[in-house]
Amino acid sequence: MAGSGPAPSMNPKRSNPRVGVQVLPANCKKPIPRWPLIEDLRLSVEKARYIAAIAELEFLAEDEELAPARRARLDQKIAAERGKLAVVEEKLSRQKGLELGLWRKLWRAPQAEAWHNLGWSRDVATYARLSVLAEMGDLDALKEARMWSDRLGLTPKAMRALLWVVADDEVGGRREEKAAAQAEPAAPQRRLSAVDPTA
Q: pLDDT tens-digit profile of 118-129?
């Protein structure tokens, strides 16, 4: 019957792998590209708005003819805007740190070998940004990050669709086997002695 039987193997060790399969190393050793994206635009605009508001309020507060009550209100507004600015700056700082941490981790994954060849640094950066925004509570970013993870081959299903397979890490495998063998307790050895059946 047509279409029955086992699916074609994508094992790189087989003598006849599927045409077009790309074998990726267990860990990408190529240099990590520079982060290509600007700061989060939404937060950057918010930051600029608070900076402008503070500058305007400080300009108004410099008027020597202001009544004390009016000056006090302006000082309160300036303090409130500075507090909001500090929150936005902290968000930007945390987001940047998380993005760069994920960025470095992604470029050590097996898929990074293909990304280098395809020139997908902006795509990987977009995924990193969306993942971090999702981690910070943005549900729309979570949906987008899931779609990007498929595009970048970060799930087993996506890797099959892209015809990417990870080569066996033979050195790492031998290292793990050796460590497991050393961790097993030695089986007690028994001495055999001859027994005289006539005794």
A: 999 999 999 999
Look up residue 75 and give its amino acid: D
Q: What is the pLDDT of residues 70-79, one digit of tens each?
A: 989 999 999 9
- The amino acid sitting at 93 is S
Torsion 53-56-62-65 (CA) sign: negative
H helices present in the chain, as ranges: 41-61, 68-106, 111-118, 121-135, 139-151, 156-162, 170-183
Confirm if 127 and 152 have CB atoms less than 8 A apart.
Answer: yes
The DSSP symbol for 39 reads: S
Contacts 24+ apart (CB under 8 A), 38-42: 39/92, 39/96, 40/92, 40/95, 40/129, 40/133
Burial of 186 (0-12, 13-18, 19+ CB in 10 A): exposed
Q: Which residues contact 77 (CB under 8 A, 6 or more apart)?
A: 57
- If you search the block for the tokens 């005289």, which residue do you land on? 196
Rounded-to-integer distance, Cα 99 and Cα 142, Å: 14
**Residue 141 phi, psi (nearest 5):** -65, -35
Beta strands in 103-180 (DSSP E): 164-166
